[in-house]
Amino acid sequence: MLKYLNLALLILYPLSWTAPLLRAGLLPLFGLQEISVLSGLAALWQTDRLLALLVALFALVAPMAKTAGLALVQFGRLGPRALPALAALGRLAMADIFLLALYITLAKGIGVGRVETAWGLYLFTFCILASMALAALEKRRQRRKGAQAAQQS
């Protein structure tokens, strides 16, 4: 069951990257522009490529690599020794949620612009948190499996 939920995340992650995370505008009177992970990265690439690469690592590569690695463990293609490395990737993936929260807080605090969260933020956050929960459940399952093997020998 866990492995199929994990595979669903491999589909939901790319969807969450294109979904609108927030709507932002310079002044409250003007329309708001929808910003997704990919559109934000594209805009960031124009101004600061190093930061764009870091955000891409946190928002795209780390969560997808962790999810794919966990799927490989669950389907028996990768040993359970990889779980600590996958946990480290999961911690990297949470950094982008922090950056987004910081951006929203700063934009609202300045008072010049207007920022509204959109449904993509909730989907993206769900994907990250679901990935963390699935990794914890898989780790617990592997421990139980190891304890049962130790009892049998």
Structure description:
The structure is a single chain. The chain has 153 residues and is mostly helical. It is 76% helix and 7% strand. A 3-stranded antiparallel sheet has the order 2-1-3. A hairpin with a 7-residue loop joins strand 1 and strand 2 (33-35). Helix 1 packs antiparallel against helix 5, helix 3 (49-74) packs parallel to helix 5 (119-152) and helix 4 packs antiparallel against helix 5 (119-152). The radius of gyration is 18 Å and the shape is elongated. The mean pLDDT is 82.
Question: What brief labels describe this structure?
Answer:
153 residues; mainly alpha; 3 strands; 76% helix; 7% strand; elongated
Question: What spatial form do the alpha-carbon principal axes imply?
Answer: elongated
Q: Characterize the biggest β-sheet.
A: 3 strands, antiparallel
| Helix-residue proportion | over 70%
Going by helix content, strand content and strand pairing, the class is mainly alpha
Distance between the termini: 28 Å
How many extended strands? 3
Radius of gyration from CA coordinates: 18 Å
Mean pLDDT: 82
> What percent of residues are in strands?
5-15%
Model regions low in confidence, pLDDT < 50 over at least 5 residues: none
The number of helices is 5
Strand numbers in spatial order across the main sheet: 2-1-3
Order of helices and strands: HEEHHHEH
Q: Secondary-structure blueprint of this entry?
A:
Elements: H1 2-18, E1 22-25, E2 33-35, H2 37-47, H3 49-74, H4 83-110, E3 114-117, H5 119-152
Antiparallel strand pairs: 1-2, 1-3
Helix pairs in contact: 1-3, 1-5, 2-3, 3-4, 3-5, 4-5
